[in-house]
Specification:
The chain has 2 helices and no strands. The protein is mostly helical. Helix 1 runs antiparallel to helix 2.
Length: 96
Amino acid sequence: MPEHEESPLRHSLDAIDALRRRTQLLGWVIVVVALTAYGRLAWIQRTHDVERILNASVLALTTLIAWVSFAVILIMMKMTRRILRAVELAVRDSPR
């Protein structure tokens, strides 16, 4: 196979890399929002306004769930990348 041809596996690896970069950017934005939401919750707790505390708590928990989802997505993307690399190496090293 000529080197200039792009294999479907290489295309998949490149797509995973692009998705990983976008996901990491969004994930770090979620981390900042989550930390800000917990800081806001700590500030609002001093007011003793139950409705505002409840709203801030829901926001903080929602961003925490998004943060954990970000971590799970990163792990899944890393595993997918490793599997695709292993398949590519197996195909490249196999006798034809």
